[in-house]
Amino acid sequence: MRIGIEMAIQFTRIEFLTRSKGGDSCRKAAYNARTIVENEKTGIKYNFSRKKDNVYHTVLIPDYVNQDFKNIQTLMNEVERTAKDPNSQLLKDIVIALPDDKELNLEHRIELTHRIVDAMEWVQNGLGVQIDIHKSQTEENWHAHILLTMRRFRKDGTGLGDRAVDLNAKIITFNGKKVVIKDSKMIHEIAKEETNAYFAELGLPNRVKDISKVPQKHLGNIKHIKHIGRIRNLINEVVNENELRKEAHLKIINDADVITDSITHYKSIFTKQDVEKAVKDIPDPTAREQLVQQVLSSNRILELYHDDGESSKYFTTIEVRNEETRIIRIANKINNQVYYNDIYNLKSDIEGLANVSEEQKQALRHILLSTSGVRVLRGRAGTGKSYVLAKAYKLATNRGQKVIGLAPTHKAVSELRSKGYTEVYTVKGFLYNRKKIFMKGSLIVVDEAGMVGTKAYAELFRVVRNNYCQLILAGDEKQLASIERGGMFEMLSNNFGSHVLIDIRRQSENWSREAATKFAESNILSGITLLRQNKCVKFDNTLQDSISKLIYDWSLSKFKLHEKLVITVRNKDVDILNSSIRSLLKANGTLQGTEYRRSIAGRKESYMAGDRIVFQKSDKDLQIQNSEFATLTSVNKNEFVAKTDAGKEVSFDPSKIQFKHGYASTIYKAQGASIKDVYVLHNGVSNISSSYVAMTRHIESLQLYCNKKATVSINSLINQLSRPNDKSASITLKTAHDLEKERTKTTVFSKVFSKVENWFKSIINDINDRSHVNEEYYHFTAKPEQEAKVEKVQQENSIKQCTTKDISTPLFMQIKEQRQYDYDVTILSAEGKAISSFQKAGIDSRMVYSSNVNNLKYYQPFQGEKILIAANNDKQNKEYVSTINEAAKVLISKGAITSIVVPSEGEDFNEMLKNKGAIAVKELMIPEIMKLINTQNVKTEPEQIVKADIAPKIRIRR
């Protein structure tokens, strides 16, 4: 559908192939692969080889598995052999609709499919995967068909073993409710994310926003439908469904909330023009205008102002504003978390560094010696930011500090690894695997921090805060930003201060460094003026003329092939440039020898020794990264050998590794690169961030090529390169409420009251911020299943996650599951009404209930679990008091950190909620929770803890 910008159609389907419904693994595999497979058990041979629409087939299995299973004849008969039950589920049958955008070829669709499969981590979890891509007679309706084994391969790799039941669904909490996330939803969300990321890499504006509510009707090949009446019925059915789709689309874009969400998915602030663009498909102009007004007048919308009260013409939403302010709040808490105590020696180490400029030493002092928990390093393009981060890693690790490197892209992760970082992750990978990574007290270094989106920052800061880590954020807010809404790096730089590297070192000539500085300052006019003065801007009449001129100049360059690169925005232009440059190299004899031609979906690519290539997918075995450039040193039918620009030699099978010619690149792939000789092809599409990246990649030489058809004049060029990208955070501007607060003069009494109120709010906010797991970031947004069923599954799974032994279910019932944050406090009670009261009051913690107070001591805590026993205030019942204290003492002896909380005398928590309200319950509970949160997990004798924290009678908390 289209909402504001081009949206790629996204549709995923998952079904189980079951034996009880006549399913046969061999038949399904043969059908998908369009080949012949025999079921060795039944002797039936399935032949679908007459169908010719399969353009790609492969089987993926773990490395430790016998490679014979890559043959579907072997794999599917193993599936049949191990599924002994007549009702067995044999395979998961998955269909993913692939984008049919004209800019994409089969190689792109293969890469995208593999990215989705990799992101789902099926192979990493021991499963077998069959992939087939089918292409219709037209360029539309591309589909990837995936068959997934239900069982894991055994560790010895000789066959399939146990069912992978743990991978069938995920149990999470969404909006306070336990829900089951089915595979279909997970696959869709992963497919959407990977597609959007790949579109961005290819320089395409298209984005997938949401799953199609009315999937495209697939007729198949009409010539195979024998009866005219059936054809007519099918056509009528499709026509009717198309009308439904149209109607559904108009209903969707007539929803003001949908319009708002579609815009704020990609930007934090927006204008009225953005809304008008989003509703342009509505045919009735009056209805369009009414919807625009409906969006802008919604109570979700906040108008934004400059500091002087002047309207900025921008808007945001309450949700976006709250997310950004939460990030700043958590960042302030992180800023106070500093544990590194070897500053004196570090200072001496920095002073003794050789081959480091004074500016770079100042940067190292800022990020390593600062007393703040958040340190920001801004480095303009070519100033040596990566060099400083490399030195920082070496200095910190030499002094015993654990350092973890993060970056938003695989390419940036590879750059960190090349600088010596041993533990590195993408931000997404770090967060997904956060429970498996030991990070307590670590120094977290985030490179290319300007490309991290707002949602990712919110979740990253929560995890960092809960693990008492320090943060170094390094980046350049002026370069390419995140695909989704962002702008927080600039705001964090302003809030916490930063050290800025401004001494540009990349460019070799003074005028070139000055030009790079102008582009870094967003002074496009001055930057272009300097380029023109040095005869670096070339205008031609048409795009083809520009390309021809560029290639001619490129051919005269004194630099070697690996020292020069052509940069442009559109992937289509990259392909044209690669093909044209290669033809020239063959014609002038630069490329000689045997030529190997590989065929991809009818499109042929030729390679020779000496060809420049770029890898399009990371490979752990070869230790190559996506977007890594290399030069082929030898080629033959079964093996290519290449030397990467980092100097590493790799040998690979050209039929299994994804790569393409590497003479030209998109700007997105070029970010972070330093190239001696750069040629920029401009075809009208650009903005201030992409132009800055493109114009600052060079070391020695830069040439800019334009065509008058897309860019009529120098003024037009400056305007195109100066286009804003509207990626700022909303909190760079003020709301009406902000302005009113600044204008209001408060009395002394109100100031004191405000301080008390703000102190209490800060406690509440800290609890909420640390516990606010952004499930949407992890792409789990399914609707809740039946509550009783979910509760049962959630209890079993959560208890297994967070205890060393299963809680005996007859004794205990988990009312609220284990929260995702690391400091989790368990509220344990034998008072059902107390638990209910906490839930109604909005207390966010894991809650476990037992119907008998005598059972509390049998709870099995994990080591260091923080437990708050909620009891009634019944001092007259000495047996009850003794039982509560005994339970606390026993839990402490089992390794828990335990405290007791009770309401005022003569009350229980339910009465407290009714008589005094939720705020009174929170005033009592939150300080106790905070006290446990801040208690260090140290080994202490149980008697000492009991004497210190648990009185002979229950403590009264007022």
Class computed from helices, strands and strand pairing: alpha/beta
For the record, the count of structural domains works out to 5
The name CATH uses for the topology of the largest domain is Rossmann fold
Tell me the span between the first and last alpha carbons.
57 Å
Helical amount: 25-40%
Number of helices: 31
Radius of gyration: 31 Å
The overall average pLDDT, rounded, is 78
Strand order of the largest sheet: 16-15-17-18-14-19
E-strand count: 36
Highest-level CATH class of the largest domain: Alpha Beta
Give the percentage of residues in beta strands: 15-25%
Shape: globular
Provide a descriptive summary of the structure in words:
There is one protein chain. The protein is α/β, with parallel strands linked by helices. The protein has 5 domains: 12-212, BirA Bifunctional Protein, domain 2; 228-317, Arc Repressor Mutant, subunit A (Orthogonal Bundle), CATH 1.10.10; 337-478 and 485-496, Rossmann fold (3-Layer(aba) Sandwich); 510-721, Rossmann fold (3-Layer(aba) Sandwich), CATH 3.40.50; 787-949, Dna Topoisomerase Vi A Subunit, Chain: A, domain 2 (3-Layer(aba) Sandwich). Helix content is 39%, strand content 20%. It has 31 helices and 36 strands. A 6-stranded parallel beta sheet has the order 16-15-17-18-14-19, sandwiched between helices. Strands 1-5-7-6-4 form a 5-stranded antiparallel beta sheet, with helices on both faces. A 5-stranded parallel beta sheet has the order 20-31-30-21-29. Strand 33, helix 27 (832-841) and strand 34 (846-849) form a beta-alpha-beta unit. It is globular.
